[in-house]
Design goal:
There is one protein chain. The chain has 232 residues and is mainly α. The chain folds into 2 domains: 7-104; 108-173, Structural Genomics Hypothetical 15.5 Kd Protein In mrcA-pckA Intergenic Region, Chain A, CATH 3.10.290. Helices cover 54% and strands 3% of the residues. The protein is built from 11 helices and 3 strands, in the order αααααααβββαααα. The chain has helices at 20-33, 38-63, 67-82, 93-97, 101-105, 109-115, 122-130, 170-173, 189-199, 202-208, 211-231, and strands at residues 134-136, 139-140, 156-158. A 3-stranded antiparallel β-sheet has the order 2-1-3, covered by helices on one side. A hairpin with a 2-residue loop joins strand 1 (134-136) and strand 2. Helix 2 (38-63) packs antiparallel against helix 3 (67-82) and helix 6 crosses helix 7 (122-130). The chain is elongated, with a radius of gyration of 31 Å. It starts with 19 loop residues before the first helix and ends with a helix.
Length: 232
């Protein structure tokens, strides 16, 4: 059991620290899921590694005809189903071997808050959780890496005592833009000159813009006014 004051690590570090492909993959996952550091990623990898190890051992014991292995297999599949890693019915030990690191990261509270639309970004979801704006059922959870079970998934809501629970809160009114903005039509040279003259004071404009261009702009203004009068 060991001394409770000195708990063991809940994750295993990579065997080789300088593999470029692994470093690139980890950096992409950290950015995608808004993780604080790679330790959070290594914890998810350790969970998947332990589940796979159990699955391989149970497959070997099942082939030997051990009855206890069948019971442990049912418990393992039921546990993966409750945590949302696998469907509740129709799964086998081969499905456990097919789990990936993203399967665990998708069950984190931070990821689900963003997936449910409670935040605009994954980073904002982490901020909401740490600051106590999110509840899971009747209790407040301030741990972004909390693994949400299948039964708790529908109960991830804003804390009613939090100001962000108000739909009119400025942070909830700001929506992330989806897609591109409408293309802006290019202005004509005459319009650009008029806008420039409106922004620059008259004294400074006389020094910066040549007199010929100032006269051209004045003629454009007169023409615009005459066209408006004719239209009326």
């Amino acid at each position: 059991m060991g001394d409770p004051k000195f708990p063991r690590k809940s994750y295993d570090t990579p065997s080789h620290p300088w593999k470029g492909d692994r470093i690139k993959e980890e950096a992409e996952l950290v950015k995608k899921f808004g993780l604080r550091n790679k330790r959070e990623l290594w914890k998810a990898k350790s969970i998947v590694r332990n589940l796979r190890r159990q699955s391989r051992n149970l497959q070997a014991r099942t082939r030997s005809g051990e009855e206890q292995a069948n019971l442990e297999t049912k418990n393992l599949l039921a546990s993966c189903g409750r945590t949302g890693l696998l469907p509740m019915d129709g799964t086998t030990l081969d499905d456990v071997l097919g789990l990936t690191t993203e399967s665990v990261l998708n069950r984190r509270l931070q990821t689900l808050v963003f997936a449910k639309g409670l935040s605009n970004t994954v980073g904002q979801a982490r901020q909401y959780i740490v600051h106590g704006h999110v509840r899971v059922g009747d209790r407040m959870v301030s741990i972004p890496g909390y693994l949400v079970t299948r039964g708790e998934e529908d109960n991830v809501i804003f804390n009613p005592h939090s100001p962000i629970s108000d739909e009119l809160h400025p942070m909830r009114l700001v929506k992330k833009k989806v897609g591109g903005e409408r293309p802006v039509e290019a202005k004509k040279p005459e319009e650009e000159k008029k806008d420039l003259m409106a922004k620059i004071p008259k004294k400074l404009a006389a020094e910066v813009i040549p007199e010929e261009e100032v006269a051209d702009i004045a003629q454009i203004d007169i023409a615009d006014e005459n066209s408006k009068e004719e239209g009326q």
